[in-house]
Specification:
Elements (H helix, E strand, L loop, with lengths): L6 E5 L4 H12 L3 E6 L2 H8 L5 E5 L5 H15 L4 E4 L14 H29 L2 E5 L12 H17 L17 E6 L1 E2 L2 E2 L5 E3 L3
Family: Belongs to the short-chain dehydrogenases/reductases (SDR) family.
Protein name: SDR family oxidoreductase
InterPro entries: KR_dom, NAD(P)-bd_dom_sf, Sc_DH/Rdtase_CS, SDR_fam
């Protein structure tokens, strides 16, 4: 994979899938901005790799969305890849469901990715870049106690599919022949991202 000169943003990049992706892209030549809530954890994750920069920001905080895009552009002047990896959720039965619990999950898993994608979109159109939304197998598989989390990931996947319609008319035909941008939803399962919904972003 050739990523020389490309710029990526990865939310939830301080550990796990996010950090592994950041290191993979940096090794391939990209400059990478990883975000997360804990500055110390991010700095430790990026230590020793000059191609990885950090920004402490809550993926579910709308006020932080513009900051993420602003910082990436300030560092490198472009955005080629956005990976919405940050996720929130914990097991909870229906009887214990609360508005605060739902808002916390959807802020990170649905609202944050949508707002960040919207903010990055003009720059991704210029670079003909791509968006990867990290989902979960629970978006397709019912599991007791995880209804709120599973539903939020299903919403993320369907949101990604709807983005595929950007640049198409109501009959699904491309309105712009030079559209090359992509968005994908990936649901990790045993290390295998088995769900990929290929989608398009408009070039103009």
């Amino acid at each position: 994979m050739e990523m020389q000169g490309k710029v990526a943003i990865i939310t939830g990049g301080g550990a796990g899938i996010g950090l592994a992706t950041a290191r993979m892209l940096a090794k391939a030549g990209a400059r990478v901005l990883i975000t997360g809530r804990r500055a110390a954890a991010l700095e430790a994750a990026a230590a020793g790799d000059p191609k990885i920069a950090t920004l402490a920001v809550d993926a579910g905080d709308p006020a932080g969305v513009a900051r993420v895009v602003e910082v990436a552009l300030g560092f490198w002047g472009r955005i080629d890849v956005l990976v919405n990896n940050a996720g929130a959720g914990s097991p909870r039965g229906l009887a214990e469901t609360s508005l605060a619990h739902l808002q916390g999950i959807y802020a990170v898993n649905v609202f944050g990715p949508a707002l960040l994608a919207a903010a990055a979109l003009p720059h991704l159109e210029v670079s003909k870049g791509c968006i990867v939304n990290v989902s979960s197998t629970l978006a397709q598989k019912p599991f007791a106690g995880f209804a709120d989390y599973a539903a939020s990931k299903a919403a993320l996947e369907q949101m990604t599919r709807c983005w595929a319609r950007i640049g198409e008319d109501e009959d699904g035909r491309d309105q712009a022949d030079d559209t090359r941008g992509r968005a994908r939803a990936a649901a990790p399962h045993g290390g295998d991202c088995h769900l990929r919904a290929r989608q398009r972003l408009p070039a103009d």
